[in-house]
Here is the input.
Amino acid sequence: METNEDVLNIVYNKNDSIIYETDENGIVTILEIQNHKIQRFFRKIGFKIPEYRKTELDEYSSYVFLLIDGVNSIEKIGELLENHFGEKIQPLYERLLLFLNHIDTNCGYIYKLEN
Here is the structure.
């Protein structure tokens, strides 16, 4: 069982296959290629299926996503979040852990580095 300290020391890195764009405001848009054989087939016969599915993150999520670099721990990311957004980000670690778990487990955008 992990202690709070163990959790705060977890480091994530972005998945190498993730393609993303950042606009001038620091908002991240994740681009997921839609290259399934059925999608390719329907494109060939004239359906307008975009090559990429775009997922735009909000300002908090974008800020966190850009801090994930294989070096920053959850604790460091939390500190930087609190310094940047102040009280608006509370409850800090509950929200941060929920977001990181989601983009790791459900989306595959990031992965946990082994200590």
